[in-house]
# Entry
Amino acid sequence: MQLQLSTWPEVEEYLKISSGIVIPIGSTEQHGPNGLIGTDAICAEAISKGVGDETEALVGPTINVGMALHHTSFPGTVSLRPSTLLALVQDYITFLTKAGFTKFFFINGHGGNMATVKAAFAQTYTHLSELQIPNSDRVQCRLANWFLCSSVRNLAKELYGDREGSHATASEVAVTQFLYPEAIKNVELDAQLPPQDKIYGPDDFRRRHPDGRMGSDPSMATPEHGERFYKAAVKELSQAYREFLQAE
Amino acid sequence: MQLQLSTWPEVEEYLKISSGIVIPIGSTEQHGPNGLIGTDAICAEAISKGVGDETEALVGPTINVGMALHHTSFPGTVSLRPSTLLALVQDYITFLTKAGFTKFFFINGHGGNMATVKAAFAQTYTHLSELQIPNSDRVQCRLANWFLCSSVRNLAKELYGDREGSHATASEVAVTQFLYPEAIKNVELDAQLPPQDKIYGPDDFRRRHPDGRMGSDPSMATPEHGERFYKAAVKELSQAYREFLQAE
Amino acid sequence: MQLQLSTWPEVEEYLKISSGIVIPIGSTEQHGPNGLIGTDAICAEAISKGVGDETEALVGPTINVGMALHHTSFPGTVSLRPSTLLALVQDYITFLTKAGFTKFFFINGHGGNMATVKAAFAQTYTHLSELQIPNSDRVQCRLANWFLCSSVRNLAKELYGDREGSHATASEVAVTQFLYPEAIKNVELDAQLPPQDKIYGPDDFRRRHPDGRMGSDPSMATPEHGERFYKAAVKELSQAYREFLQAE
Amino acid sequence: MQLQLSTWPEVEEYLKISSGIVIPIGSTEQHGPNGLIGTDAICAEAISKGVGDETEALVGPTINVGMALHHTSFPGTVSLRPSTLLALVQDYITFLTKAGFTKFFFINGHGGNMATVKAAFAQTYTHLSELQIPNSDRVQCRLANWFLCSSVRNLAKELYGDREGSHATASEVAVTQFLYPEAIKNVELDAQLPPQDKIYGPDDFRRRHPDGRMGSDPSMATPEHGERFYKAAVKELSQAYREFLQAE
Amino acid sequence: MQLQLSTWPEVEEYLKISSGIVIPIGSTEQHGPNGLIGTDAICAEAISKGVGDETEALVGPTINVGMALHHTSFPGTVSLRPSTLLALVQDYITFLTKAGFTKFFFINGHGGNMATVKAAFAQTYTHLSELQIPNSDRVQCRLANWFLCSSVRNLAKELYGDREGSHATASEVAVTQFLYPEAIKNVELDAQLPPQDKIYGPDDFRRRHPDGRMGSDPSMATPEHGERFYKAAVKELSQAYREFLQAE
Amino acid sequence: MQLQLSTWPEVEEYLKISSGIVIPIGSTEQHGPNGLIGTDAICAEAISKGVGDETEALVGPTINVGMALHHTSFPGTVSLRPSTLLALVQDYITFLTKAGFTKFFFINGHGGNMATVKAAFAQTYTHLSELQIPNSDRVQCRLANWFLCSSVRNLAKELYGDREGSHATASEVAVTQFLYPEAIKNVELDAQLPPQDKIYGPDDFRRRHPDGRMGSDPSMATPEHGERFYKAAVKELSQAYREFLQAE
# Structure
């Protein structure tokens, strides 16, 4: 059940049965020579909808621009500053809590979001308590990173070994190929694996990773792989969401 | 050309030809008993993609949660505070300007966004100038509201007369029906037109507009109407975008 | 009744009779070769006092610096950033609401303030509700732009036709001449009407409007015109204020 | 020379001769049973204009609402939070510095502003330096409190001895009586001097100072006294302003 | 009793007896050729612990970086912007108030902190009242500057006359020599007293005070002097703290 | 070499040899019935000084209050909100970068700081680049958590097995016992291990962890253990710091 395709009376009904919501969060950032700029948002959104279908969870609108400052020396990247993303996540949770939601399950497609979103959770718990919203002390937020699912990691290891990498990975490119076969790019990649270096500022990032990839060989990706990753993530996160709902 | 489905080298190529970008902005808010919560984001996104197809403009990711504080007494509404949305719009424009974009054409689906987005434009021009980004003094932002297109207003008048209303309007519901026929709701609406009152705070809004509509009769909406609205908006805004690009 | 010339016990008495207050808001910005930098604040203040005399409304202190970022390439302009003005308006309303005011009637002299002030109203309604101030859900804010009064627009059309313009207009210059005859400037204006172009950043603004005017011929202004504009605005806004007080 | 009554070309001329500006800052807050709510703004503005006349300084628009949080339990008080006032002062100085001003002489009428304004000065110096505005490292700000002028303190001691007090003082009430004789209030004051206690939060303040005064007997004030205070302050601050302009 | 060396059950017990806390606040900034960068934090911390021992007060962790923007042109200086320090002080007081503290006694070692900390107190009182924390209207904050103690000033006058100065003073250097004899620096100082000029921006400060001192001759400092200053400050502030606790 | 005990000319000399600095960051929060409230700051500071001695690194002042919102239902906890800590870290790095530092090695004693500090690093890189500080694109920040050192983890496993826990751990309590033997608390702990649950808001945290510990048995801690942990951490982090300095 997608929030965007529902009416408010339908949400009112839903809240009688469940106070959980799935919120996809991705990024709009360079993903190397053949990876889509929307990769992180696309994957998070599709997997969230899969989890929604599987668990009858309500799925909120995708946060499609996240914290990608280190990619901003490549054209096409859009980013929020951490202070902006922190305020945004706090706003989302605050207004949904006022409506009665208490279980927030963010499905994340971008490692760079993790720090800021966790900081936002901490700040929001205190904010809600200061607003004295009923049940605010029962609010629970979870950040579930699809790319860290053990089933996903195992599959990546099996398919790509040490050529999976850590940015513009073969697995995430595969998922986008499965979802948008019409947007598969025919680009020759450097045969040599790019470095998988530390991340500092945006200019430094581009110096270290001239084509944008970090240790990955996304030329190995196929739509069929993508479907397997997608299904593995949906299955594992659906289970995680159910447990989250039931946990005290 | 969608930013989300492009690679950064493709954006680099695009920037050699054009420095314009279309950014859809909507909202996630109650739209009465039969209107979708995502109506404003759905319409802005679809029309933006239409304009992108028509004009070969790059279309950025949709800002799907906007300024909807006055709707937050209805479950399912998500909103940013104006201060958050202001920072968000500034971040979008700033990082895209660094990459070389100078013509920002926001296609908006929600009246409640207008004030904050305009304030954000003003603040961002000065911000860019203070950052001394090259060409920042050539940056131009435009807020184009599809529902205010004269072709759209004329069609709404022709089809619905004074039953179009100003929130959860027949025309916007029609567009979502055209785009998502599977999400058409069978809901009986009160025959009497709801009031079209002033807007103050969220509790006050719900008191005045108990089912969420403002002066509208969206039971008149049909998918066929929606298609006509969609096409009218795409045509008129494509023309507006072309003129915007060429204007000094 | 001016707040600045009252004592707190007098305000306490006033609040037993009325919870309305008029707040003038203007700007401190260039107004072309012969327009006063304080034009917008001067007009808003004088008209507000006129409305206060007519309706026995309490009139608060003038917000004399507003959102004028686009004029900051001309010396003498002072501006708040939108984020500052947003906080300022929120502070004003919050503390006056704590004292018991619920009807805020801002009389505005500057188009550039409109977006930010409206955004501030929206943010403040939610802020007040979160602070749980008694009666905060009854708070209503109105932005009344004197230069958009129909009586004012008609008179400007009658007196100046298409030479009224949109910034440093003949009508607002006339009002300041009526109020401050000692400050009438003898400046020869370019006979040709200046352009009435789009507004972007401050440098761009000065490029397009070298002498600061937008489409106006303020050499047509006279103190006698000014008095007529002043009286028309006071009359129309007094009526609007009375209706605002009585509206539910 | 008042900024509000000048044109931008006049300011451009002025800047060829001087880069100094006088900015009055006051407050809108309770001043006891017979003191005007606008006392601090009224005094600062009048004395600033006097200094402007005496020294041919440009006088900017009055900041008439300041930091008066501790008075907000009395109706009629309006206040900015320190964070808002800090941003406001930074905005004023920043945009005037861009135009070429470097010597900012704030004439202050309210003790409660001092901390925040000084903090704002410090923050602004660094802000200007980070913006790399030409001459920004020559910017100097001074906070001149008229009520702390030695000539004023001596006169108050002579006229009122220990009945001058520290809020709603006899001297400041006298100045407003001189300036606005039509607003002199006939109010019987408690013969016993009110306490002159520490200042904490707003509720605490009202508990300690039930009628709003701190240690003062403003029933001793007369318009004639007011004129003497006004003249003393103008003289002493004119001298201070001249020295400030000449100081390296 | 030091907060850092206590457990939460010990604090719980303490709160049954007292709701007071001493918070040292200093700075990390250049102190001339022979003064320690940590001088202000070191002095404030040691004197606070002395007061804690004397009065059985709980002593919180030292705020060792304060508002030192004007010293940032000298290497080694660290500073918070006033807006950051304001938020920090508000956070400290807010969370300690939630735990039951109501009497906050800041022992300060740096003149540059005074404005911002006082502004923070004012803002926090209103913030606490808006959060509706029980007893928040009983919260009292005091800023006690050890270097302004009359016993300290008298001793400095006696020992150094007009060579005490106002930054990198002989007295504060003496206190650090008493506390850290191993860190006494053997540095030849210019025999001529450095200027004691106005403070503006960081670059200007270094131009006026090339070696960092303001009017001081810290070559006169000795560890023995330091002990006397330390004891004087502890004695005077212990008395001040006791009175603060008992005051209504 | 401690920054607090150095002079600015000494720092100037240091910068000719190294542009690295070690910054300890901890927290002031409950650590169960026998753990010190300052545990995280104490450990981070001592280990940082050890690393400084070992590597001749400059060690900055300790950030002794961090992000501990989830502990604020226990008395004695002080916390910054993430937005405040983010601004604080940005200020520290910005002003030190202006002085010439480029390698920032934060030694952290508190898991709750990690998210916010990482977010602050990302934001600061972009901030520095926007300020156009020379060498700002060479700035590198590292967050080194002493409790995650492999030598520390191995030792904890060896000494405590699964009774180490994750908050108020045996190892960190041991380090404080080594450093402050006079502050060892004789408190009987519940023999049963406390739960090691998820972390949400402050009230929820106290409900789940009534005595403050998470899965730990700090009654096993001894000063001798503490010394071993301390030495292991200093050794491992000294090596890490050296590599960090040399890394490109």
Notes: Chain B has eight helices and four strands.
